[in-house]
Amino acid sequence: MTTALTHQDWLDRAARIEIATGLFIEGQYVSALAGETFDSVNPANGAVLAQMARGKAADIDRAVASGLAAWRDGRWAKQAPRARAEVLLQWANLVEANSEELALLETLDMGKPISDMFNIDLPEVLKTIRYFAECIDKIEGVVTHTDASALHTITHEPLGVVGAITPWNYPMLMAVWKLAPILAAGNCVVLKPAEQAPLSCTRLAQLFVDAGGPAGVFNVVNGMGTEAGKALALHMDVAKITFTGSTAVGKLLLGYAGQSNMKRVALETGGKSPQIFMPDLYDFDAAVDRAVGGIFDNAGQVCNAGSRLLVHRSIHDRFVARFIERAAALYQPGDPLDPATTLGPVVSQTQRANVMAKVQRACEQGATVALPVPGSTRPLTLPGGGAYVPMTLLTHVTQDMAIVQDETFGPVASVQAFDTEAEAIALANDSIYGLAASVWTADLKTAHRMSAALEAGVVWVNCFGDGDMTQPFGGYKQSGNSRDKHKDSLLSYLQTKSTWISLV
Ligand code: ADP
Fold first, then answer.
1. How far apart are CA 412 and CA 449, in angstroms?
2. How many other CB atoms are found less than 10 A from the CB of residue 83?
3. What is the dihedral of CA 487, 489, 491, 492, to 10 degrees?
């Protein structure tokens, strides 16, 4: 997908855009019961875009009750699988037909470059919905080999009402990674989007209804994590919580499940992904370009961002020099509504301050800022200011520094030199996280050996961030306990039933 619209066209549309501010419950927009709101702010210029309804526990109760009623009367789960597939396919068509509006909402809301919406987010949203729609009538149960006195079947049934709590870095895409398999499996869902980017997901729910989805099957409650999110995770009628976000909140959700109804909890949490560059890598320039993209795409606000660059000492200095040169060539910071912009602000001034504080702390501990090249940056200014963080590369870091150990979620990478393969693996695995990793090498044996040794749910060899819907995405260790994408994630929103039929 591309956009033929110019910067001025997008500015004009932004000036005219109508924003739906309500929660979306039982097929319609509603105010929060207490009548409270919160501001949605454009991080590129600090402008308040809308006062969004602020859902709390009572609104979650209402949304879950709507989902439970829809679940109990079977208005979705009991439809023929193919009929549900047709609704989801039509939903994708409507998302595609409304892509300009959805792209604009998301760019205004979280500062993502509008061109990224067309190159990455929207195509991936469409692929995800269509993939899971087509999986619906391919799920099969089994008849096991038992004694002739019995017939034993194992079948798959939906869970009921599922709660989804999602982050702001890809607001629609992260939601759809959950929504598509949840709905394909026949469940009802209550979605709690991130409060930093609440504009687009209620529109997704409206389009689901427009596509023929029954009211009450897909409800959205915007609000704060500690209010709406917590209430959803504690709810006694929610069968499962699926989450993408921070490790700290993931741990809270496990606790909420224990305090309430032992609901299933599927977590995709943080990452601190290493990219290892061996001395024999066969296309040095291509590898460096991918290293640059691995940390500066989406301003580094990516769970699997390649934030730890581990480079063999023999190529380290050349790598750093090339990285600095290519970052300037490949990324154009600017107004996210300008289709030429490839680096926008981070999501908020709060997040900007967090990221800058982490860089500052690393410098106090002895790290050196190699990028921005000292003295050469032009501060990026837009009317009203913006939450921009410069592309940053830190050298002279040590393994114990927070900048190496903690998720930063901004355009900041560190680089470390290593001498041996064993040292590279030890550095890579010395992390509480294990979401993704990559190895760059020309040697097949090295590639296999290292990919087996890396403690990560996703390993890329001679690439970074590649994949399609057949790739399960999720982490080892404290990066989570579940997988998105791949048809198995549909199974994770189903439960198995054993039916043992006596034939005597
Ligand atoms: P990030 O650091 O990326 O903002 P968070 O984990 O804080 O990640 O937020 C991810 C999602 O979790 C958001 O929708 C947020 O509102 C929600 N959230 C935050 N705190 C809680 C909580 N205590 N209970 C439930 N959801 C929460």
1. 29
2. 13
3. 170
Domain 7-269+481-498 class in CATH: alpha beta
Nearest 5°: the CA angle 170, 176, 180 is 165
- The answer on pLDDT for 492 being more than 80 is yes
Cβ atoms of residues 295 and 274 within 8 Å: no
For the CA of 269, the closest atom of ligand 1 is 6
pLDDT tens per residue, range 247-268 = 999 999 999 999 999 999 999 9
Domain range annotation of the chain: 7-269+481-498, 274-468
- The single residue listed with the structure tokens 């991130």 is 194
The beta strand positions in 132-226, using DSSP E, are: 142-143, 150-158, 161-165, 188-192, 218-220
Measured over the CA atoms of residue 41, residue 46, residue 50 and residue 55, the dihedral's sign is positive
Tokens of 74: 């079977």
Q: Check pocket membership of 271 for ligand 1, CB cut-off 6 A.
A: no
* Edge-to-edge strand ranges of the sheet holding 142-143: 142-143, 150-158, 494-502
pLDDT tens track for 291-314: 999 999 999 999 999 999 999 999
Q: How many residues does the chain have?
A: 504
Our answer on whether the CB atom of 225 is closer than 6 Å to any ligand 1 atom is yes
> Which helix (H) or strand (E) element contains residue 24?
strand 23-25
Quick count: other Cβ atoms within 10 Å of Cβ 8?
10
The number of C-alpha atoms within 13 Å of 453 and in the hemisphere containing its C-beta is 19
Distances (CA, A) of 307 to 27, 197, 218, 238, 459: 41, 24, 36, 36, 15
Ligand 1 in contact with 252 (CB < 6 A)?
yes
Mutation pick for ligand 1 pocket among 165, 253, 298 (CB with most ligand atoms within 8 Å): 165
The tens digit of pLDDT for each residue in 353-370 reads 999 999 999 999 999 999
pLDDT at 118 over 90: yes
**Token pair in block for residue 371:** 């990028």
Q: 444 with 425: CB under 8 angstroms?
A: no
Beta bridge partners of residue 437, listed in sequence order = 459
Beta-carbon count within 10 A of 139 CB: 16
Per the annotation, the verdict on 421 as an active-site residue is no
Q: What does DSSP say about strands 23-25 and 368-371: parallel, antiparallel, or unpaired?
A: unpaired
What's the one-letter identity of residue 440?
W
Q: Which residue has the tokens 């526990």?
A: 57
Q: Look up the pTM and report it.
A: 0.98
Question: At 1, is the pLDDT very low, low, confident or very high (cuts 50, 70, 90)?
Answer: confident
- In CATH, the number for domain 274-468 is 3.40.309.10
Take residue 304 and report the two structure tokens written for it. Answer: 């699997």
Would you give the end-to-end CA distance of the chain in angstroms? Answer: 61
Residue the block writes with tokens 């039933």: 497
